[in-house]
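Report of the visiting student (M.T.), summer placement. My assignment was to run the structure pipeline on a short list of targets and document each run. The first record concerns L-lactate dehydrogenase.
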Amino acid sequence: MAFDKKPNKVVVIGTGYVGSSYAFSLINQNITDELVLIDLNKDKTEGDVMDLNHGVPFGAPTKVKAGDYEDCENADLVVITAGANQQPGETRLDLIEKNARIFKSIVENVMKANFDGIFIIATNPVDVLSYATWKYSGLPMERVIGSGTILDTARFRFMLGEYFDLDVRNIHGYIMGEHGDTELPVWSQTRIGSEHIHRFMEKYKPEGTMEELENIFINVRDAAYHIIERKGATHYAIAMGLARLTKAILRNEQSILTVSTLVRGEYGLDNLYIGVPAVVSRRGVERIIEIDLNDLEKQQLEHSAKVLKEAMKPVFEV
Ligand SMILES: NC(=O)C1=CN([C@@H]2O[C@H](COP(=O)(O)OP(=O)(O)OC[C@H]3O[C@@H](n4cnc5c(N)ncnc54)[C@H](O)[C@@H]3O)[C@@H](O)[C@H]2O)C=CC1
Ligand SMILES: CC(=O)C(=O)O
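After the run finished, the structure tokens were exported:
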């Protein structure tokens, strides 16, 4: 019943391309009751709030306001999308030092306001900054969640749907590892409907080749570069992915999503945040799902973890 539901509150920190697109998705999908926007650029935030509020009559009754860190006190979720984005040619890992510095002060400010909810992190490099947020906040690991490879997995499913001319909702597969250049496609577990992708191709697309599938993965991995070259930022798809993750949490959906979370022995990895399938609920990350990987996929995941740990060294002791 709508009457006895406790209103939920989401605070977004960083309302540039990603943060403002996420706010727009939340309102359009009727996901939250209260939405607070925080950014260093106060004029931009106020302008966004006016603009979003004027759309509320067409969407759902959401209270939107420009706020400050004290608004985090009773928030259910704090979503961080603040910080530098990649310039053409820059990798996500190139952003590490700049954004880690910004994160230290943001997370400290949020925790000073006695925040006791769940963090979602999207700023890049997302795996490293999720780990940083977990360390800086002192919250249990299940309550600090990175967007991980949710976007890469969506790109993978979309491009395979186009290739097979099928509804993307019938494509089941994951991209795991770093949200970045060392991510990997889990072909051994990719299914179309309930059929393994290779068998499906043999039966229904015999002219298809493994090389074409490999090129699809390369386009998934490099999608951010392709978009940034053309328009300077990527934001709509990640905003929708963050809205999906927000729904999974606030509505206690127990959804399996490829988020960035702390591995503690799963997949033979330890003490880093990395993209893996995990069950997400009102408690945050309930548990990691350990799907069977073949030998090549295991090696690729280990390599991805190794690159992430190396990249983290200058910033953290890992
Ligand atoms: N995880 C993912 O799949 C994706 C992550 N991203 C990442 O999201 C981040 C944001 O990207 P954009 O929105 O395109 O950048 P943007 O430059 O448009 O927005 C960043 C915002 O952060 C604000 N900001 C900076 N320092 C702040 C602080 N200390 N406190 C409050 N606000 C602060 C800026 O004023 C700006 O409005 C980047 O790191 C980008 O790489 C982008 C797309 C996908
Ligand atoms: C920018 C980024 O991380 C992406 O679009 O995947």
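Residues 310 and 318 are 9 Å apart (CA to CA). The first strand starts at residue 9 and ends at 13. I thank the supervising group for their guidance throughout the placement.
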